[in-house]
Amino acid sequence: MNLMDRRTALKQMFIVAGGIMIATSCDFSSKAPTIQLNQVKLNLDDEHLLAELVEAIIPQTDSPGAKELNLHLFVMKMLDDCTSPEDQDKFMEGLKKASKLKAKPMEEQQAYFKALPEEDVFFKILKRRTIQGYKNSEYVMKNKLVYELVPGRYNGAAKMDA
Description:
This is Gluconate 2-dehydrogenase subunit 3. This protein has helices spanning about 5-25, 45-55, 70-80, 85-100, 105-115, 120-135, 140-145. Helix 2 (about 45-55) packs across helix 3, helix 2 packs across helix 5 (about 105-115) and helix 3 crosses helix 6. By secondary structure, it is an all-alpha fold. The model has no long low-confidence stretch (mean pLDDT about 85). It is extended. The protein has 7 helices and no strands. Helix content is about 60%, strand content about 0%.
């Protein structure tokens, strides 16, 4: 074996080893959520349940609902990145309890939320992040809010107080 063959063999070995490392770090299971989460362990069923729950908070009317705006993904990412580990655990417990709402009518889901105490961590996080995601969504920013450049409109007929 000459020197060039050894170099080629080493290159190919490193390429194969790198490919194996990359492939083992990927999750190809059908139960993986659509976004990557680092702290919270949610599966695809949990993601679908969250989509239904955020839709119960902001249902579709003449404007798109939370599910159509993918606010469940926002809730998942904010839960993963911006929530304390203790509250993450409480949220996951609340999500397990709420799993009985899967495939229930929206009225039952809304009644469940109304029956929860105000200090329930699961509902506080879910509601706060859903509303935050809605207010910051592209739909609301483009279609619902009117942006005026600073310093705003000049009103020459405004009376001055003396």
